[in-house]
Specification:
The structure is a single chain. By secondary structure, the chain is of the alpha/beta class. Among the domains are: 215 residues, Rossmann fold (3-Layer(aba) Sandwich); 160 residues, no CATH class. Helices cover 62% and strands 13% of the residues. It contains 17 helices and 16 strands. Helix 6 crosses helix 8 and helix 6 packs antiparallel against helix 9. The chain starts with a strand and ends with a helix.
Length: 756
């Protein structure tokens, strides 16, 4: 790779466009002081991405722009383009020429271009690092900076050597890996923070899910209990209704037949006692007695119906009272609590000094009973207070209706008793007067007695039917409640296998026990809370999935962290290995150049440990204060730097501090040239590095330049004639009255051909 040309426009003193072609291996730039020849070197620094304005003798980006003169207008921007020959593809670009351009504007903004395309400064650095060059370093040695490598501390000197040895690419990778490692650790902390943040909510949701699982198990158990209960209840009611219908058919038929026989006997008796007024009276009393019996039966049935309604309503209200009485937050009047307190005080009054154990035991039991009675009374009161006036009016109305029916039944019973007495009296008279009608009447009375028994049987069966009807109504309500609480699936009890004989042969207390178990399960299910289960489960699954995702992210970040640390360790090892190898090779060249410059002596680079820097907590002496002793904190890890050891011939000088100005210049030149020989850069810029040399050393310097030119293209800014004589192309820089730098070029090869 060769440097082909440099194009400068508006940069510092170059107010007009100037192009420098580098066609030879050594190009010298000469000119009087102040003509702007060092601006050529600074233009190269500028286009290669130098960010330090101080190193380019400026304070702001605006200082890099031509500021004009009395006869020349100032420029609005400065632009420098450097062009490289890339026919051998040293740059990783598929172009024969690679150009880099940097422009700076008056507002301090910069633009970068690679082959005319906009690029970033980072792109410029990475592209230059691929060929081991940069904005500054061993290939850019400016005026007054030749001594910098000797003046630098060991750590800075190591950085210069790493740059010269082409280790910047590894350093870029290491820095990038360290940035990624820092970002990974930050991400790990954020992920762990997120996991800690959602952990309490996840635990809460987990407890909710456990409650839901318990509720689900209880619901499944209730479904099973309900299905068996409903199946048995349905079989019982159906079979009971059928049995009652069967029991009713025979006595009803007998009653109907007996009524016909009684009517026939009455007709016969009426015929036998025709004209007898007492017989007519007997028939009239019998008719009244029959009417009273009919009315009494109707009143009894109405009373039974009202009793059933009252029983159902009382059971419903009692159930509601029990549910409300379970509440724990019941308001109490202070006076009621004080009343209980006074009763307890009364129990304990006069017991001081009394050691009778039985008396104390009785007082303890009595105090416990008082508290329990008070709590029970408050719970009952809380339940009763929850009953609305409408409920009370409905219940009181049913009770009033029952009183009316009871009074009606009592009145009819009284009438019936009177009619029975009248009937017995008339019958007794007839018996005494009409012996011949006794057989007919006896048969009639026997049939009437049998009819009474049959009517009683029928009424009892009708009462059982009404009970079955009420239980059927209650079953319908339980079916509706079960469907709302557990879903319609609970109503499908076809899978329950139970025989009719088992149901009808079972004691009804067993079925009632099942119903109580169901009620207790329903109360427990209400306590667990059955609503919102799907939302809680969805939120739990989403939170659990998020936590699992964050856990996987943590594992991935840990793996990334481990791989980055391994990569950093590998890069550090490679840097150290190549650095030590490079120092060893530089030492050989450094020793040769040093002996050449000084005619002997010894010079070498040494890798040394850099002592850790310690920081004190405070500069104030707190040793006399308890706990206030000064503590030292070590910063950073063990580092290595590079030190320079020289020994001049015929002098007992061992350190750099004892060297004269010329000796330091020769030493620094020898070291810089040794570095360049070990890892030759594509080109080097030497800005008046020979200014401090005398004539003899200038010849040695020229010899070293020619030796360097075998490996690197050189651009030398000089006043030294010896150095000029070694150049093939000479650029002269002049400045006229317009304060604009101009260039003139001479090619010694072409001049020699012309002279021939």
């Amino acid at each position: 790779m060769r440097l082909k040309r440099l194009e400068i426009f508006g940069f510092k003193s170059f107010g007009r466009k100037v192009t420098l072609d580098f066609i030879s291996q050594i190009t010298a730039v000469v000119g009087p002081n102040g003509s702007g020849k060092s601006n050529v070197a600074e233009a190269i620094r500028f286009v290669l991405g130098e960010q330090s304005m101080k190193s380019m003798r400026g304070k702001r980006g605006e200082d890099m722009i031509f500021n004009g003169s009395q006869s020349a207008a100032r420029a609005n921007r400065a632009s420098v383009t450097i062009v490289f020959d890339n026919t051998k593809r040293e740059f990783p670009l598929d172009f024969d020429e690679v150009s880099m351009t940097r422009e700076v504007f008056r507002d301090g903004s910069n633009q970068y271009f690679i082959n005319g395309s906009t690029a970033r400064l980072r792109d410029i650095f990475e592209l230059l690092a691929s060929v081991h060059i940069g904005a500054s370093g061993h290939h850019m040695i400016s005026q007054g900076e030749a001594d910098r490598i000797l003046s630098a501390n060991p750590k800075e000197r190591r950085s210069m050597l790493e740059d010269a040895l082409g280790l910047k690419a590894y350093q870029y990778k290491r820095e990038e890996s360290e940035r990624r490692l820092t970002k990974t650790e930050e991400n790990m902390r954020e992920v762990e923070s997120l996991r800690r943040e959602i952990a309490p909510h996840l635990r809460f949701l987990k407890k909710q899910m456990e409650k839901m699982e318990e509720a689900k198990t209880l619901r499944d158990r209730l479904v099973g209990l309900y299905r068996e209960y409903l199946k048995r209840e349905e079989i019982y009611l159906t079979e009971s209704r059928a049995l009652l219908a069967g029991k009713l058919s025979e006595p009803a038929a007998k009653l109907a037949d007996l009524n016909i026989k009684i009517e026939h006997a009455r007709e016969q008796l009426a015929a036998e006692s025709a004209g007898d007024s007492m017989s007519h009276e007997l028939l009239a009393v019998e008719a009244k007695l029959r009417d009273a019996r009919t009315r009494r039966d109707g009143a009894a049935r109405a009373l039974g119906k009202v009793d059933g309604m009252i029983e159902f309503e009382e059971r419903r209200l009692k159930k509601r009272e029990e549910q409300l009485a379970r509440q724990e937050d019941i308001a109490m009047h202070l006076g009621e609590v004080e009343h209980v307190s006074r009763e307890l005080d009364a129990l304990f009054d006069g017991m001081e000094g009394n050691n009778e154990l039985d008396r104390w035991r009785w007082i303890a039991y009595r105090a416990r009973d008082l508290v329990r009675e008070f709590i029970g009374m408050k719970k009952q009161s809380a339940g009763q207070q929850a009953i609305t006036d409408e409920d009370r009016r409905e219940l009181e109305g049913l009770r009033a209706e029952r009183i009316v029916h009871e009074e009606e039944l009592h009145r009819i019973d009284a009438e019936y008793t009177i009619f029975e007495e009248s009937y017995a009296k008339v019958k007794s008279s007839i018996d005494a007067e009409k012996e011949r009608s006794r057989d007919t009447e006896r048969a009639l009375f026997s049939m009437m007695q049998e009819r009474g028994e049959l009517q009683h049987t029928v009424e009892r069966i009708h009462g059982d039917e009404e009970r079955i009807t009420r239980e059927t109504q209650r079953l319908d309500e339980e079916l509706s409640e079960a469907g709302v609480l557990l879903g319609r699936a609970v109503l499908d009890h076809s899978s329950v296998v139970v025989s009719i004989e088992e149901v009808m042969g079972e004691d009804r207390t067993r079925q009632e026990s099942r119903r109580r178990d169901i009620e207790r399960g329903k109360l427990r299910l209400e306590d667990l809370g059955g609503a919102g289960g799907d939302d809680v489960e969805k939120e739990f699954n989403e939170t659990l999935e998020r936590d699992a995702f964050l856990a996987r992210e943590t594992e991935d970040l840990i793996k990334t962290q481990e791989s980055l640390r391994a990569l950093i360790d590998e890069l550090n090892e490679k840097l150290n290995t190549e650095f030590r190898d490079g120092v060893s090779r530089i030492n050989k060249q450094f020793s040769d150049f040093f002996r050449l410059m000084f005619g002997g002596g010894v010079a070498e680079l040494m890798v040394v440990k850099i002592e850790k820097r310690r920081r004190k907590d405070t500069d104030i002496d707190l040793s006399d204060i308890p706990g206030g002793a000064v503590t030292d904190e070590e910063e950073g890890e063990d580092e290595e730097g590079v030190d320079v050891s020289v020994s001049l011939p015929h002098k007992k000088i061992k350190g750099l501090q004892m060297l004269s100005g010329g000796e330091r210049a020769l030493t620094s030149i020898a070291l810089l040239f040794a570095i360049s020989q070990v890892n030759p850069p594509p080109f080097m810029v030497l800005d008046e590095t020979d200014a401090a040399l005398d004539e003899a050393n200038s010849r040695k310097y020229g010899d070293m330049i020619e030796q360097l030119a075998r490996h690197s293209q050189l651009m030398v800014i000089t006043h030294n004639r010896e150095t000029m004589s070694r150049a093939t192309t000479l650029y002269g820089v002049t400045m006229g009255s317009d304060a604009v730098s101009k260039t003139l070029s001479i090619s010694f090869d072409e001049a020699a051909l012309t002279a021939k």
